[in-house]
Amino acid sequence: MTVFAPKNTAEMEKMLALAVETESPVAIRYPNGEEECFAKGEETDLTRWEKLTPDGDVTVLAVGPRMVNAALRAAERRKKICVISARCACPLDTETLDKIVKKPVVTMEENVLRGGFGSSVLEYYARRGGKFRVRNLAFEERIVKQASVARQLQQAGLTAENLLEVIDEIL
């Protein structure tokens, strides 16, 4: 099954067109609200991840527009952060994962931590063997209290500020 997480409406439209042509199941995850990301990266196949900033000391794999935007805000403050839109959460873009394994990786997703995108990245690297440094940022497996989306993201540690703190810890 393919699981897409477009960063904006234009990308979602392309993914919908691809889903219609595909003979296997496709899910497209898009968040509520109006937040979109308009950063331009490498034009590639939609199943490949999109590199939005130059290489850095750490790579952030962000899923969905809110996470991509948070990662880009962090990268504006520290130029050594490579932001990649992991617009196809499943299957993983293993070619990109193989390229970035030598430096720390942080995953960001609006999903539950256990069994999510970040867990899949960890499982991939564990099967591959060797040394790797990965930190996963996502919601803990518990009920999220009623609040604005911004407040919920803050409480879950899914903001640019939280990302910068995590990067400071792993570098």
In short:
The protein is an alpha/beta fold and about 170 residues long.
What does this protein look like?
The chain has one domain (2-170): Rossmann fold. 37% of the residues lie in helices and 20% in strands. The protein contains six helices and eight strands, in the order βαβββαββαβαβαα. It has helices at 9-21, 65-77, 94-100, 117-128, 149-156, 160-170, and strands at residues 2-4, 26-28, 50-51, 58-62, 81-85, 88-90, 105-112, 134-139. The chain has a five-stranded mixed sheet with strand order 3-5-4-7-8, sandwiched between helices. Strands 2-1-6 form a three-stranded mixed sheet, covered by helices on one side. Helix 2 packs across helix 6 (160-170). The longest helix is centred in the first third of the chain and has 13 residues, at 9-21. The protein starts with a strand and ends with a helix. The mean pLDDT is 94.
Q: Topology of this protein?
A:
Elements lengths: L1 E3 L4 H13 L4 E3 L21 E2 L6 E5 L2 H13 L3 E5 L2 E3 L3 H7 L4 E8 L4 H12 L5 E6 L9 H8 L3 H11 L1
Parallel strand pairs: 1-2, 4-5, 4-7, 7-8
Antiparallel strand pairs: 1-6, 3-5
Helix pairs in contact: 2-6
